Here is the input.
Amino acid sequence: MAQDLRLGIGGLGSIGMAVARCVDAGRIPGIRLTAVSARDQARARERVASLRSRPILVPVAGLAEHADIVLESIPAAHFAEIAYPAIAKGRIFMPLSVGQLLGHMHLIEEARRTGARILVPTGALLGLDAVRAVAEGPVQSVTIKTRKPPRGLAGAPHLAASNISMENVKEPLCVFRGSAREAIKGFPANVNVAVALSLAGIGPDRTTVEIWADPTVTRNTHTIEVRSEASDFTMTIANVPSENTPATGKVTALSAIAALRRLTAPLVVGT
Here is the structure.
């Protein structure tokens, strides 16, 4: 039988730890957890102590030395520290901070050279299979409208630069409209989904993003509207926010687990 693929996880927050527990429990045949990295190493040691088979704790740049798959779930500012070694070593790299990839697009060509693969999980979105399909032909427009409870947007650089406070938002407020490339600069923790959509479809400069602070919603809601020669469609997903990180939906960890499962599954459904 083929040898198990080794998994390294960068970041042991709500997403990384959920994936770690799933793999450690043997729920993804063919993949085993071998290494983890986290900013707070003392806390990381406590967290991995609960696992049946404890992975080694290494610096983020060292994950690629001990893993065939490197899952990135760390703060966006540290994206390059985990991405570059993974690509250089020819690993399978799964970024959750996919928005940061726009500033490092040369990694795609580097992956071609080293044999690495960059696999972006769907995350908190839906319908990327349909978007990829229609993008094989002419596409007129792709728009994503994101609505989050105000606290889920608090602290975003665009809000600070525009002097927009989330403290007393009483009705839906559009705080941004522009391209996916512009959106991720202003909301690096909030619209990775928009960048994933743009990479699956017509690119970050042609994909339109609207971001709403909406006190009438309790879930992070994304609506995608696509107009193309092959198909027109509209899709909406409403994700339950994570307790510890309201900017992120609970489904994000499940999406990462599903993406890992596809690597070794004998049957894969969907394009």
